[in-house]
Amino acid sequence: MSDCQTEVVIAGGGLAGCTLAHLLSGAGIRCILINTGKTQLNSITSTTPSRSLAITLASANILASINIWQKLPRLQLGLFNQMHVWDEQSGGEIRFDSTDINEPLLGYIVEQQLLQQQLTDTCAYLPGCNVINAETVTSVINQTDSVVIELGTEDRIQAQLLVAADSNHSPIRKLVGLEYKRHDYQQQAVTCLATSSLPHENVARQRFLPGGPLAFLPTADPSVCGIVWSTDPDHARSLLSMNETQFCSQLEQAFEYRLGNITDCGDRSRFDLFRAHAPEYIHERTVLVGDAAHTVHPLAGQGANLGLLDVAVLAELISQARQQYRNPFSQRVLRHYQRWRKLDNQRMLVFLDALKYLFAADNSLLINLRGYGLNTLNSIPCLKSRIMRHAMGLEGELPRSAMPLPYAEIM
Ligand SMILES: Cc1cc2nc3c(=O)[nH]c(=O)nc-3n(C[C@H](O)[C@H](O)[C@H](O)COP(=O)(O)OP(=O)(O)OC[C@H]3O[C@@H](n4cnc5c(N)ncnc54)[C@H](O)[C@@H]3O)c2cc1C
Prior knowledge:
Elements: E1 3-5, E2 8-11, H1 15-26, E3 31-35, E4 52-55, H2 57-65, E5 78-80, E6 82-87, E7 93-97, E8 107-111, H3 112-123, E9 129-133, E10 137-142, E11 147-151, E12 156-159, E13 161-164, H4 171-176, E14 181-196, E15 203-209, E16 212-218, E17 224-231, H5 233-241, H6 244-254, E18 262-264, E19 269-277, E20 282-283, E21 286-288, E22 294-295, H7 303-323, H8 331-360, H9 364-378, H10 381-391, H11 407-410
Parallel strand pairs: 1-12, 2-3, 2-13, 3-9, 6-15, 13-21
Antiparallel strand pairs: 4-8, 5-8, 6-7, 10-11, 11-12, 14-17, 14-18, 14-19, 15-16, 16-17, 19-22, 20-21
Helix pairs in contact: 1-3, 1-7, 7-8
Residues 11-17, 34-36, 38-40, 51, 53-54, 112, 136-137, 165-167, 171, 189, 191, 228, 271, 290-291, 298, 301-305, 307 line the site of flavin-adenine dinucleotide.
């Protein structure tokens, strides 16, 4: 058994955990990143599951501030400057265009695996940061002025702060007894990369079907889109059991052939969909970030973006306190983090929940109302601009690392 000391222990090497390690290292704060290395993904193949992530400009800025965004191969970075959303049942639709708000684009599409790889590879070389792989935390012991983390190997780490970035299953959250209020949507998302006969023209498209939304996210390849098809579990199971030809045919029909025929769909993966939120993000010297604190429906592509904002805020408050010669890991700093992020996350959870249920309703009054609502909204430019700026992560109180940069600096 060996003991070591550091300032911050981060449990979980996903997008949130690795980004936090980069931000803390950049601020001169020592940390240890512990990752089990196990993925929580439920794939039908043994190969890496594909998941295309919509990334906001705020998140791109955070990743640019740690020099990760610049390292992503430009040829694998999708971007969208328009968005088209329509509802099968009511026929209502709404279109967003970045030129309406004088922006060059609305957001990016990145393969999660690509981004994760870049973050993971570079974490190993961060000054003041050690990475421990394939290890589990078995206990968390709070002491007056530190927290002791015991590992499966019986090694112990003494730190000032423990950050749980260890997924929505968060073993750390359970160890310290923080709650996670979960609501199952009784839906699953089927994801893959689909090739279409017509080009996507950098338009993100989403069609609301009675079973759930079907999104086509434009990748860097003009004929390939990342698919996120949310539907009831029986339908999801059947979509996964089909052969490729049958699946492509279902996909093109469900999407009304808007991108012509689907010629290829690659490996498919399936994910359970639920919403969850921790009523408290802090327990003594442990703090929750990312999916360990909240999980949202993927219909607006916000989950990872919220997690990146969590870690950007936490790192900023810690480093600000240090610069001002205050205790960077005090309850005051942690409470400030919770106040700032919990409110933003709560708003997003409520908004996405309302959208999910509004579009799932099969009551004719609600169907007519949402068709009317979508069409009316589509004709009010100032309201559309507000929605666009919000979805891009450019509204509200932002940490410095998420502030808008000139377009050229992040491309
Ligand atoms: C179908 C689908 C589509 C999505 N689309 C989008 C999108 O377009 N845009 C978007 O922003 N978000 C999207 N999301 C959400 C996004 O993928 C997640 O919010 C994001 O991956 C969460 O990152 P995280 O780092 O918090 O957690 P995770 O990615 O779950 O990473 C947690 C890490 O912790 C590790 N770990 C687990 N237990 C331990 C332990 N005991 N000790 C140490 N390490 C541990 C895991 O192995 C993992 O590496 C989507 C989600 C789904 C399901």
